[in-house]
Amino acid sequence: MASRVNMRPTNKNTLLKVVILGDGGVGKSCLMNRFVSNQFDEHSFHTIGVEFLNKDIEIDGETYTLQIWDTAGQERFKTLRTPFYRGSDICMLTYAVDDKHSFRNLQMWKNEFLYYADVKENVQFPFIVVGNKSDVEQNEREVSQIEMETWCTENGISACIETSAKNASNVHDAFAIAVQHWLKLETRADKNDCIYADTVDLTKKQSENRTSCCINTSDE
Amino acid sequence: MLCFRIQQVDGGFFEKFGNLLREHAETTENRESEEKRKVEQIAECLRSDECASTDTEFVASSGDSDNEAKSLSSDSEDEKDKTDLISAAFNFSLNGNVPRAKPRNNFRGVKKDELRRQTSMYLASMTIDELYAEILYEILHNVGCDVSVEIGQTALISYAQDAFKIPNNKHNQLLSEAEKKEAPEFLINVEVIEAKDLKPKDSNGLSDPFVTLYLASNTSHRYNTSVKYGTLVPTWEEHFALPISDNSIDDTLCIEVWDFDPAESVKEKFGRFFDVKGVKGMRKFVKEIAVAAATGQHENELIGVAKIPLNSIPASGLTMWYSLDKKNKATRQGVIKIRIAFSAEKNRQVAAQEHRHMLRIILLHELELSKVAQFWWCGTFSPQGEALLTQHIAQSGLTPPEVALCQWSVYTSVHQNHQLSFSLFSKLLEKLAKPLRSEEDLKIFWDGAKKLLPSCFSVIRKIRKRDFKDKMTMQQLTEVLNILGNIKMMEMPADVDLFPNNMYPWVTFSEDTKRDILTVVADAVQQGADDWFNHITENNVQQVENDVGRLQYLIQAIQLVKSDLQKALEFYDKLFQQTINFQYAKALYVFYQAKISALAEPDVRNICKSLKKLSFTGFTTNETDSNEPLKEGTTLFELYLALHRFVVLGKGLCQTDSDSFHIRNFYQWFHGGVAQWLDIAVFKALQRIEKAVELDKLVPVDTTVRYSSSAVDTISIFYQVKVFWQQLNWPDVEGCYTFIAKIIDDICRCCVFYAERMAMRVDGMGVQTDEKKFEVTNEWCLAINNIEYVRQSLQPFTDELGMEGVIEKLADLKSAMEAKRCQDTLNTVIANAIDTVKNEIIALLETVVKKMVPAMKRLLIEGAELFNQDSNSIDRLMLYVDSNLSTLHNELNEENFNRVLEIVWDNLDGILKEIIQSNLEKRRPPSFFANLHKTLNLMLGSFKANDLNCEELKKTELKLKVNGLETNDLIHLVHLNLYEEFKNLKESKYGVLSVKAKFENNNNLKVTVMNARNLLAMDSNGYSDSFVRIHLLPEHKFSGIPKPKTQTHYKTLFPLYDENFTVELPTDYKSVEDGLLLFSVKDKDMLGYNNQYIGEAFLHFKDIDSSNTPMDDLPQISLALGRPTDLSTEAIKALESRLGDKQAKEFLRKLKQRMGTS
User: In a designed cystine with A182, which of A126, B86, B714, B1086 is the match (CB 3.0 to 4.6 A)?
Assistant: First the structure.
């Protein structure tokens, strides 16, 4: 943040709102903390409702500011986290590779997101599936990479990756892939949706430098 | 007006949520008082509604509702029914002597027990006739002074006949039978209680009193009390029963108090000699001894007599002090307290039984006669009735506790059909509370209690049907509670079933719980509340068949319940607590909270769920009719507030266990609703902002401020959101935290949207088509100020959301660390919001400046082209920039104006770079750039900034300046740069040169080249063959001036030149700016053809001494040698760009040699 509070409008980056979803304990907060501050705390607490952090990331020479909303996975926080889905640009669906149940719940998370984010049905939303805790011993692993890829294919999600917040592997990549994926869909959406550009889109998020105003969550 | 139009966008959405909601809260009290009134009205209508049904209900509650009971309530005046009533009350069969009476074998279940008990007694065969005969007999043989005097026998007899409804022939028969009957054996019960003020009769000043009593008609039959020795205030408390005959009414009871004189020998008397007190005592003592000695026997002495005529004693008896008199003595001899009562020798139980029947008959008769209302009769009979009963009590010898028990039994029984005043029972209970009773009496008592209790509980149940402002209501409740309290304190025999199921159809008894007064009170209270609640839910009709209607219905229900609770608190609770230690209001609350939860929760949850669906159906800016979810949301949160207040009430009422109430977590029902509402709020806000911007006339709202209406409107939206949030007062801290995060994020979104809209609004403004330039208008400044104003509201806004408190609570609830994380998140979100909006402002400022750029660029170019010829264009440029900037300066705050300046510098820099580049490419002469430079300086001067704060622009300006120089000047600039560069050299690998120099005689320059040290070895032999040449720069100013050089010193790195030179300068040398001496040290080539450059040093004219100091006295100057290294300076770049300039080309060629690179 400090870098942005200058007199000069140094930050002309595109702002992207990223929501991290997944069962409690799969390591959402750890992923975010690893990505944002390169820290890892084995004994981190349960997230209360939501947490929020900013992080700049450079993709193809362009800097994007990710506004990352980390959510609480516990069921009792459902009503507290869902209000934050609306206006998201990227949704990161997470599970832990040593927790089959968290993997099975991906479907639920995806549905919850689509419902509360009010994503239009025919719009392809940039989901990325992240299998965290890839550092676990092979014998503790319950979900294979193939399973993940299969599930993603079946659900029309083209971005997926295994990460370890603990040893930092692939964490940055996960976010980078997410942004690239968004870019890809964004470009496509630009081409497709520009005919709607004359309609006022009140759901438009705070990305003032966004080239387009008619993406995913628009209500037209 | 404007405001109104904006509100129209969404039907006053935010006002409803913020202010109106708050107003709702503030006016709650008023409204609730109004509700109270409503409640009263409802209660009123309830009372009248159910007045008729009350009776039937009581009948029903008294057991199997047989015909008699129903006929009682049906107001039929039929004689038969009346008889039925009596027989019902009487509880046993009328015999065939009453022709119209139905033979009756079936009695109410409740009373069968009593009947059985009665039959077991000898009275089984007793009939009304017999009782009546007994009554007549009693009337004929009245005792006491009162009855016959005041009322008269005839009146009594006729009253009795009416009460018993005995036909005349029967009456006459029975009367003659009674007359024939022998007069009854009465007893007069006398209790000798105590005496005082007795005259002393003994020599010791005391007496040994005892009492003898007898009837004047029968003096031989005397009764004596014990002797109380040595006292003048004896207490006997002894009972005597003196038989009297019917005609002894004129008799007199004689009470004699005697001093006992025991048979005592003279010797014994002398033994008491020393006990004798006073002269009088001594005289008595002497007399006693004399008498004892003379007669040898004792003689008791009379203290005094009281004569009581029996006709002065009332039938109910009396207790009184009588004075004791003695013949021949005028003074009172003392007073004695006597209790006298009449009684008949009767079997006590029989007498009690008779009395109960009689009491019942007389009571029913009187109730019938007086038509006294339900609950009113409180124990007062007509004089006749009173006389009959008193006579019976007296003639049967019933004791007050026995009478009370009879009354208890009869009144409770009658009460089942005709409610009597509760105060009656309350008083009876006080009388009955203490006396020990036989098993039989206990049975009678509890039987009565059993009959009485249902109506007591009924009063509690139906408390709402009465006017709580009526004194009577409160009084009645007090009595009822007293009754319950008294019964509660009594020990109930184990075999009594006080609460038979059939008498409590409204109680759902569970089999295993023990029933006692308190549990049934609780049941009654709950049942009453339940009835009320059902009444509320049934009669409080939902106005509209939709969700809003449903919500309003719920709100109304809660308010009615709440006002019931308040009423309970205000009027009844204290009474319940004090009398029976029952927390009435709390019990009500516990019940209501569960009911309300069950009623409201499913609806609330459903409606919250459906909010989403409703809110996002085709939301666009054109559509303004999406007010349905809004209305629903408003009502929903009114309900929320109503529940909130209800819960707060509960916390006060049930401090210890309110945490266990289901309703405590009511807010969870609304969870989805709040989230959805916040979402809706964002959309509404955006909609409203759009309208506000559209309607904004872009004039300051008043003369003191620099923002316009849309900023005020936007902030008022935020304000309403805040007020709403404060009103919400969300109890769950985790929820608070996340909702705050959400609100801040949303508000940020609104700010950004506002900024965008504002920018769009002013976008087309200020363009002057005729002059093809953009004019900064006040509107633009207002737009920027508006956004700034909105931005500045963000921090205070977030502060007022109560973040700090939430974080503190989180720290308590969770851990300091988690609280810290939440705090960080909120701070980040806020900082993000503020920053994002700031970027919006900057973006807008950039837009403004960008719009100025073309005009600025055009004017700059014109200025450069025509600087000297046409000063008009410069003026126009200045005017343009000046007016725009002064507008900005006047209208914007300092921060934003400084931002504008920065952006202007930035853009100016861009423009200049572009102009320079393109014109260099065009090989424009230096004058072009010089003009441009002048133009720029003029322009900068007109800016309001004190310092040029932009490094980039400074560089560009330099570039411009350099490019504006003629080649000669440019070359000299290169040298000056080198001078500046070398000046700071401390060490040099090329060597150090020592010189002295001074100006002499106006125009002579004297230079001494002294030596060089550590010269760079240029030759393969490790030495250099060096010499020094002196140049005067700038060269074109000193053309024709010789450039002297020293001798070459071979093969040394430490040449000692020690040569003096005198150069004659032009007289105007002093006018040369920045004149330099250049010492170039070279290595002489063998052939003198290709000298190598070792290094060079500069001496600025200003550093050369011009005083009269002799050369020898001047300090020598050490100059570290350097070589040019940097070809990238603006000056060199400018020279390089002058491709067709031979001088420049030549200079650069030589410069490269000097660099030693060629």
Answer: A126
Q: How confident is the model at residue A105 (pLDDT cuts 50, 70, 90)?
A: very high
Check CB contact under 8 Å for B835 and A1: yes
| Structural domain includes residue A203 | no
Report pLDDT digits (tens) over B1117-1153. 888 888 888 888 888 888 888 877 888 888 888 888 8
Three-state DSSP at B331 gives: strand
Classify B155 as helix, strand or coil. Answer: helix
| Sheet of strand B209-215: strand arrangement | B218-224, B209-215, B252-259, B301-309, B318-326, B329-344, B186-196, B235-244
Compare all CA atoms of chain A with the CA of B811 and give the residue at the minimum distance.
A48
Which among B206, B203, B205 has a CA at the least distance from the CA of B233?
B206
With beta carbons less than 8 A apart as the criterion, state whether A175 and A18 touch. Answer: yes
For residue B111, pLDDT beyond 70: no
* Domain tally, chain A: 1
CATH code at A143?
Answer: 3.40.50.300
A98 lies in which domain range? 11-196
Helix (H) or strand (E) holding B213: strand B209-215
CA dist., res. B576 & res. B487, Å (int): 15
Mean pLDDT value across residues B72-94: 39
**Which residues are within 8 A (CB) of B168 and not within 5 positions of it... i.e. 6 or more apart?**
B161
Confidence at residue A95, expressed as pLDDT on a 0 to 100 scale: 94
In a domain, A143, yes or no: yes
Q: What residues of A are in the B interface, CB distance below 8 Å?
A: 1, 4-5, 7-9, 11-12, 15, 45, 48-54, 67, 77, 79-84, 86-87, 118, 199-200, 202, 204-206, 208, 219-220
Amino acid at B357: H
Is A144 in a helix, a strand, or coil?
Answer: coil
- Tell me how far apart the alpha carbons of residues B624 and B603 are, in angstroms, rounded to a whole number: 27
Q: Which CATH class is domain B968-1154?
A: mainly beta
**Beta strands B209-215 and A127-132, pairing class:** unpaired
Q: Which of A9, A52, A202 sits opposite B825 (nearest CB)?
A: A52
Give Cβ neighbours of residue B386 (< 8 Å, ≥ 6 apart). none
Residue A93 domain-assigned? yes
> Has residue A28 been placed in a domain?
yes
Nearest in space to B255 (alpha carbons), one of B294, B289, B302, B288: B302
B735 to A208: CB separation less than 8 angstroms, yes or no? no
Residue A78: phi, psi to the nearest 5?
Answer: -55, -50
Lowest mean pLDDT among B101-110, B267-276, B468-477, B849-858: B101-110
Give me the architecture of the B186-261+300-343 domain, per CATH. Sandwich (2.60)
